[in-house]
Each structure stands twice: as structure tokens, then as C-alpha cells.
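User: Please fill in residues for this 211-position structure.
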């Protein structure tokens, strides 16, 4: 991709320092185009971060490396963009057992196994009630959330409209008695919190990143 030649030439003339070391006019134009693209990327990242800070719904994709898994449906990730800070993600569409609930630690281990050592693509859809980034996670185009539900490590997240978008995967897991569905008296996290109260939330500090 290159910016229009006329614009690149104008910038080349007005800022000759951008083209130091370029032997030909074509190389100088290429150097300016590359500079403009890098500035455009930086500006897009700034806009993205500002919209997140302002708590607006953002729909975008960006690559990350996971750094810490909190429980079966939340984790911290490190965006691949240089200089970006770690981000806490609450996975959309799924509801994993609480960490102090039956199958909670197995669900956490399953999510860690899914993302460990891999580049994860994050599709942001908004924020949850705790202020965390709400997103769908993908590896090689495949939904991590759908796989966790299918293997019995989470439920399809209930909504006012019904049983959620992954109800078919949940039914399959329940029929095959996978994971949490093999546990006697398995209950939705919402019901567990109503009966037992919330689990203590771990301290969310960068000191825990990388575990």
C-alpha cells in the first residue's frame, strides 16, 4: 500500500530529513509512504485506546499473547503492538464455573491450555459490569469460547433472549456428560453466587503477569 504520489512528493520536499539515505526519487517516495503508514497505524492505536478509555463499544481485531489466566472465562493478554499495556479480557458468550465452584479450577486449566504459547486474536465487543474488556478470542479463526463450551468447561452465557449463542455446543457437552456436566448438582455460576456469594477476586496487578 502507498499513499498518493503527489502527497508523498509534497511531504518529501517539505521534510527532506525523512528521505536521508534514499538514493533515487522512487526510493524517497517509498520512504515517505512507509513513514505515513507507520504514523497512520500509531494514530489508529491511539483512537482505539481512547475509545476503550471512554468505555465505548469497540469492534476490532488485534493479536495478543496471553500472560495470565484468572479463571475459566477471564484472562490478561499482552497486545502485540509495541508499547501497549496488558489488558484484562472477559470472554463473551460463555460463563465458566467460579474459581471456588466445582470444576472451576479445571475450567481455568482448560483455558490456559487453549491459549498457552499461542497468538490469540481478540475481537472486542464492549465492556462488562466490572469494566473489563468483553471480547471473543480466536486462534487460527476458531472460537476458543465455543470449544470450551463444547468440551464441558463452560456454559453458553444466558441472556434475556434465551440460552445464549453457544447453546448447541452446551447441549452436545451435556449429552456426552463432558466436564462439568458429569458433576452431580452442577449449577450455573449465577445460581452459585446467589447461594454461596462471590469468590474472592484475585489482585489484578502486573506482578502476576506471565504465570
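Assistant: Residues filled in for all 211 positions:
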Amino acid at each position: 500500500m502507498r499513499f498518493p504520489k503527489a502527497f508523498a512528493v509534497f511531504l518529501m520536499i517539505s521534510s527532506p530529513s525523512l528521505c536521508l539515505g534514499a538514493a533515487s526519487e522512487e526510493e524517497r517516495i517509498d520512504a515517505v509512504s512507509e513513514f505515513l503508514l507507520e504514523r497512520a497505524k500509531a494514530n489508529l492505536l491511539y483512537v482505539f485506546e481512547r475509545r476503550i478509555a471512554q468505555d465505548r463499544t469497540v469492534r476490532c481485531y488485534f493479536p495478543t499473547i496471553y500472560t495470565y489466566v484468572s479463571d475459566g472465562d477471564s484472562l490478561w493478554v499482552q497486545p502485540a503492538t509495541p508499547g501497549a499495556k496488558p489488558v484484562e479480557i472477559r470472554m463473551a458468550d460463555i460463563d465458566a464455573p467460579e474459581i471456588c465452584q466445582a470444576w472451576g479450577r479445571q475450567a481455568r486449566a482448560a483455558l490456559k491450555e487453549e491459549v498457552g504459547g499461542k497468538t490469540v486474536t481478540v475481537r472486542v465487543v464492549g465492556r462488562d459490569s466490572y469494566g473489563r474488556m468483553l471480547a471473543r478470542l480466536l486462534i487460527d479463526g476458531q472460537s476458543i469460547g465455543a470449544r470450551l463450551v463444547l468440551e464441558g468447561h463452560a456454559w453458553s452465557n444466558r441472556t434475556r433472549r434465551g440460552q445464549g449463542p453457544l447453546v448447541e455446543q452446551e447441549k452436545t457437552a451435556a449429552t456426552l456428560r463432558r466436564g462439568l456436566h458429569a458433576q452431580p448438582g452442577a449449577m450455573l455460576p449465577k445460581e452459585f453466587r446467589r447461594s454461596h456469594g462471590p469468590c474472592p477476586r484475585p489482585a489484578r496487578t502486573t506482578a502476576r503477569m506471565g504465570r
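For context: The chain has two domains: 5-53, 61-208.
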